[in-house]
Amino acid sequence: MKAADVETRFRAILKEKAGDDVEPEPRLAWEAFLEFAKLSITCGSQSFLFECGRSQYGDNTYDVHFVRVYWLGGAYDTWAERADCSFSYAIPPDSEIDGITKTVEVSYVLQKGVARLKSDPQLIDTVDRFAAEVGDLSELWRVLSPHKPKVTVWIEH
């Protein structure tokens, strides 16, 4: 897929899997994100990040964030674009959520000649490894389910 098509494709998958591309349910957005992450983007390299935990700004929020960053350009002009989902929950401290903190980042460098493939087996393996490192999130979703998050889904060009 071309970088110009990322937003349309990501939002379509969110709508299909999570029912909404503006304020998706977080667990379903995560599942949609993993499906989207396996789609090839014509770019130089990519990274995937999942993080959850207390906000570093001391504002009594708990954040869940996952992002796909892909690098475009050439030898002299390189820039990053990203597909990003962020969920912020207003949860007081000393809650059972405080014990759930995680950060996982995995990078993928495109192999020469792979950019034109619709399905890149190495990318799929990278995303599967990323999902395995993030692990089972059922406890996270269980604890967060009674709370309504502030949702941000955006594509940075």
Could you write a compact summary of the structure shown?
This protein has about 160 residues and is of the alpha+beta class. The protein is built from 4 helices and 5 strands; from the N terminus they run H-H-E-E-E-E-H-H-E. Mean pLDDT is about 90; it is low at about 115.
Structure write-up:
The two termini are 15 Å apart. β2 (61-73) and β3 (78-90) form a beta hairpin. The chain contains 4 helices and 5 strands. A 5-stranded antiparallel beta sheet has the order 4-1-2-3-5. It is an alpha+beta fold and 157 residues long. The chain is 29% helix and 32% strand. The chain has one domain.
Features:
157 residues; alpha+beta; five-stranded antiparallel β-sheet
Number of domain units: 1
Helix content: 25-40%
By DSSP (H or I, 4+ residues per run), the number of helices equals 4
Largest β-sheet summary:
5 strands, antiparallel
What radius of gyration results from the CA coordinates? 16 Å
Strand order of the largest sheet: 4-1-2-3-5
